[in-house]
Specification:
Order of helices and strands of chain B: HHH
Strand content of chain B: under 5%
CATH superfamily of the largest domain in chain A: Winged helix-like DNA-binding domain superfamily/Winged helix DNA-binding domain
Radius of gyration of chain A: 19 Å
Number of strands of chain B: 0
Structural class of chain A: mainly alpha
Distance between the termini of chain A: 63 Å
Strand content of chain A: under 5%
CATH architecture of the largest domain in chain A: Orthogonal Bundle
CATH class of the largest domain in chain A: Mainly Alpha
Helix content of chain A: over 70%
Distance between the termini of chain B: 69 Å
Helix content of chain B: 40-55%
Number of helices of chain A: 9
Oligomer: heterodimer
Largest sheet of chain A: none
Shape of chain B: elongated
Radius of gyration of chain B: 24 Å
Number of helices of chain B: 3
């Protein structure tokens, strides 16, 4: 499909959520914006292969996700360094409570395996259906569902095991999450 | 008597809290809107040829599409 003005507008309208997805995936704002820029260039370079009437955000997310994946494989080392930088930025930030909780969440999210993290973000934050998320990740719908479930249980284990009693779980849950007696 | 939840359904309140934090983190970025650099980029690029050039080359045989 040719690059019409309305298609241009639609691509532009997807930029905020593409950025949010890129930042959630990479945990690094500068790198995320580079990813978004490359996604836009690729999308426009390949706009002929976009099917009119199909899901434009899903198409753009697929491009971004694939770019992130190939980039990640190429630069696994640098990613690890970026984690170190991330820890450094944490120290310089004010220890406000809400902010701290936010950062704890961010750190826990980064601990998830990549498959699970992207599935959780696509379904839980970007608002894609399981079907769209499966298409974006190139896997079966059931696979996405189980990745999302595993991501949620892992996050709750990372973030809330210690404080779980605040939420008033019954005895069985307490036994499950509390471990020994 | 309260119904005993199995492990997979572990604490609905924790799950809703996780969902809330995830969306808060995400929406925080979404609310920043479109940075100028991207608005300019999309306005500037005329189509596939320009974008391929801007990517710094790409496959040479791809430019011969002649839409």
């Amino acid at each position: 499909m040719p690059l019409t003005d309305s298609l241009r507008d639609d691509i532009l309208a997807s930029v905020p959520s593409l950025r949010a997805f890129a930042i959630s995936l990479s945990g690094n704002g500068d790198r995320a914006d580079d990813l978004v820029q490359e996604t836009l260039l690729r999308a426009i370079a390949n706009i002929d292969s976009f099917q009119p009437g199909s899901n434009l955000p899903a198409w753009l997310f697929t491009i971004l996700r694939n770019l992130f994946r190939s980039d990640y494989r190429k630069r696994r080392r640098e990613v690890e360094d970026a984690e170190g930088n991330y820890a450094k930025t944490l120290k310089t930030q004010p220890a406000q409570n809400a902010h701290l909780e936010f950062e704890e969440f961010r750190v826990a999210l980064d601990k998830l395996p990549q498959d699970q993290r992207e599935a959780l973000i696509l379904v839980g934050a970007s608002g894609f259906s399981y079907e769209d998320a499966a298409a974006i990740c190139g896997c079966a719908v059931g696979t996405i569902k189980s990745r999302v479930n595993r991501a949620r249980s892992k996050l709750s284990a990372l973030l809330y095991v210690d404080g779980a009693e605040d939420f008033g779980p019954d005895n069985t849950v307490r036994a499950v999450i509390g471990g020994n007696s | 008597m309260k119904e005993v939840k199995k492990q997979g359904g572990l604490n609905a309140e924790i799950q809703s809290r996780i969902g809330h934090q995830l969306r808060a983190m995400y929406d925080d970025v979404v609310r920043q809107g479109v940075p100028d650099r991207f608005a300019e980029l999309i306005r500037k690029l005329d189509g596939p040829e320009a974008a391929t050039a801007a990517q710094g080359g790409g496959e040479p045989d791809k430019n011969n599409g002649g839409s």
